[in-house]
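Thread: Newbie trying to understand structure tokens

Hi all, I'm a second-year student working on a class project, and my supervisor (Dr. K.) asked me to get a predicted structure for one chain before our next meeting. I've only ever worked with sequences, so writing a 3D structure as a token string is new to me. If someone could post the tokens and maybe explain what I'm looking at, I'd be very grateful. Here's the chain:
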Amino acid sequence: MISIIVCIAQNSAIGFENKLLYWLPNDLKRFKQLTTGHTIIMGRRTFESFPKGALPNRRNVVLSRQTDAHFEGADHYCTLEEALASCRPNEDVYIIGGSTVYQQAMPLADRLVVTHVEDTPLEADAFFPPIDPSVWREVSRDSHSTDEKHHFPYSFVDYERI
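---
Reply by user tm_fold:
Sure, no problem. This is what the structure looks like when written as tokens:
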């Protein structure tokens, strides 16, 4: 199963200057719960944005066209296809960004695991591709209002390919 996991704003924004747009503790907990014990595939810039390097208790896979690149604690492949070919057939794989990797993975993914944030940021330079309702069917939604740790309403929404 190939899943894309992402947190997106109302205008499909996902990042600015290689940083997440939102710090939502419940979204981070969900990300950890879903991806722990599985393979996560990301682009080089996403990996470089992690303050402590490779995420623990997961197989980290980094995509970079630089054939001689080394990423501490992670496997390296030049293409998404090579990375996916390295995974076991029954393995749960999560694509975690950035925007170029999401674009490449959309035709291959079985499921989208999305946190929709009810906000449009003032600045963004990375965006998620459109979620086409003729391709993706919403199968679950868990909506949350603001609180002391979450400054914007948000919803956890899962989609499956039709």
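A couple of things are worth pointing out once you decode it. The chain has a mean pLDDT of 97. The helical segments are 25-35, 44-48, 80-85, 99-105. Feel free to ask follow-ups in this thread.
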